[in-house]
Automatic annotation (TrEMBL):
Listed name of the protein: DUF3828 domain-containing protein
Top-rank taxon, per record: Bacteria
Ranges for region Disordered: 13-34
Length: 151
């Protein structure tokens, strides 16, 4: 059995991409048990879909899966008032995003979502404070937030 396990593992190691010393390899990971990872998963997928297809059935399905019903109702009202996407707080699609854990208390966790706009030479950022319910891992609040002290 041990020989079989070693044989099966060897091809995977042989196919690993080699990098120059000091060069970082981009990686992504996450867990469906982490409210923070779920916020990152939602924003990454939502932005991809809006960029590729615009608003439609798929974005509505993502909202239904990841957001509480109460938040979806609040976003509908916000979007009518502002004529913009309430998840992104914009009429445009950001060029990139970053999600950072902020704090947890009283059955919720808060994350800061940094949305980047424009190209690398003239990039600007906006920030959102996103609240998630720890029991359901669903996003229950999205507010425009201040830039964190560490930028």
């Amino acid at each position: 059995m041990l020989a079989l396990a070693l044989t099966a593992a060897a091809p995977a190691a042989a196919h690993q991409e080699t990098r120059a010393a000091g060069e970082s390899v981009p990686t992504r990971s996450g867990s469906p048990d982490s409210a923070v990872d779920r916020v990152a998963d939602f924003y990454g997928t939502y932005i991809d879909v809006v960029q590729d297809r615009g608003r439609g059935d798929l974005t509505d399905g993502l909202r239904e899966h990841y957001l509480t019903e109460k938040l979806r109702t609040e976003l509908d009202a916000w979007e009518r008032d502002h004529r913009a996407d309430g998840v992104l707080r914009s009429r445009e699609v950001p060029s990139s995003w970053r999600v950072t854990y902020d704090e947890s208390a009283m059955g919720h966790t808060w994350t800061t979502v940094r949305l980047s706009w424009g190209d690398a030479d003239q990039q600007r950022h906006t920030y959102l404070t996103v609240r998630s319910d720890l029991a359901t891992k669903r996003i229950s609040g999205i507010e425009t937030g201040p830039a964190p002290a560490d930028g």
